[in-house]
Amino acid sequence: MHDHNLIAKPNYDLVRYEERPVLTHGDKPAPGLHNVWITLNNEKELNSYTTDTVKQVILAFRQASNDRAAVCVVFTGAGTRAFCSGGNTREYAERYAGRPSEYRQYMRLFNDMVSAILSCDKPVICRVNGLRVGGGQEIGMACDFSVASDLARFGQAGPRHGSAPDGGSTDFLHLYVGIEQAMVSCVTCEPWSAHKAQRLGLLSEVVPALKLDGQYVANPLVDLRTVDDQGRSCFGDYKTGEAYARGKADLERGSVDLGELDRAVDRLATRMLHTFPECSIQTIESLRKKKLEHWDKNRESSRAWLALNMLTEARAGFTAFEMGGKREIDFVALRRDLAEGKNWLDASLWDDIMPRAGK
Question: Contact, 174 vs 153, CB < 8 A?
Fold first, then answer.
């Protein structure tokens, strides 16, 4: 049989590419078969992806897609803190801020990464081991299934840091949660807990990951009541006040164990192992068409706009984020300066909006 891989032996140093057992219903490894695990390997920076990481993810999905013995692809991040926090803001600030033509080329690679996930010839499971925000949310939603630790957080960051979630979230999120909740998430950038994300339809399964005194417990920061004291729906919302502080103390006292998450991923892969492979991938590809309808229609115009935005808001947002501290510009000052007629070439506008000591 022919080798259809683009590169015979890709050099994976920014992602891990592994073959792991796929289990039968009796929890025995299926002989001659496996799952492919693709792991973003930048734990120190919350598994954010650089330009070179994106290239390796594309090659990894092509390789997994061509693997005749692979049953599923599991896409995840290293460590326990994050699946992926999106694009690497350090690289954005240093290489792409103020350089729209360069960022346009980068976005071609990013688009190819999303398309590689959407066109994979295997079912793709996103193993959400922690934070999934910004571009991480977008590549996560390109996957076919998502199974999450209940310590995970989900959301967008674009409008608060100088971008728009046009790398997939404005295409995909409303298909999962409806247009109103997609509006709230994409525009306000307020995070969702894993429990809320599942309630709204974003996740296949949520499992505990925090251990206290040797036992798994639910995320102590999240309200799991159906309604609050005023009779309002609250399931999955983050606690506030003293309840949040107590939950934070429990979180710091406990330890994170992703064993249940791995078992949940294995169970889902086992269920797909016991299906006809061609019937399954045809079903998946038919359902993916709903995502592709929006993705293929918008990705080129979104790429062009995101590139041009590197001259103005993205340049300011990513630079501010890398300055540390608050990591955000002064939004009130920006809106006031623009209303008064200042433009992005005015040095005084930049002086007004950028964070600095004592401001």
Answer: no
Average pLDDT in the 113-133 region? 98
**105 in a structural domain:** yes
Residues 285 and 333 in one domain: no
* Residue 37 within any structural domain of the chain: yes
Residue 208 has what pLDDT?
98
pTM of structure: 0.95
* Pair 344, 312: CB distance under 8 Å: yes
Q: How many residues does the chain have?
A: 359
- Contact present, 66 and 58 (Cβ < 8 Å): no
Name the domain count of the chain: 3
Residue-by-residue DSSP string for 283-341: HHHHHHHHHHHHHHHHHHHHHHHHHHGGGTHHHHHHHHHHT-TT-S--HHHHHHHHHTT
Can you give the residue range of the structural domain that contains 333? 312-353
330 plus 294 within the same structural domain: no
For residue 319 the two structure tokens come to: 């630079």
Measured CA to CA in angstroms, residue 16 lies from 36, 40, 148, 174, 255 at distances of 10, 7, 20, 31, 25
Split at pLDDT 50, 70, 90, the class of 3 is confident
Both 302 and 245 in one domain: the answer is: no
pLDDT tens readout for residues 27-43:
999 999 999 999 999 99
Task: Give the sign of the dihedral formed by CA 84, CA 89, CA 90, CA 95.
Answer: positive
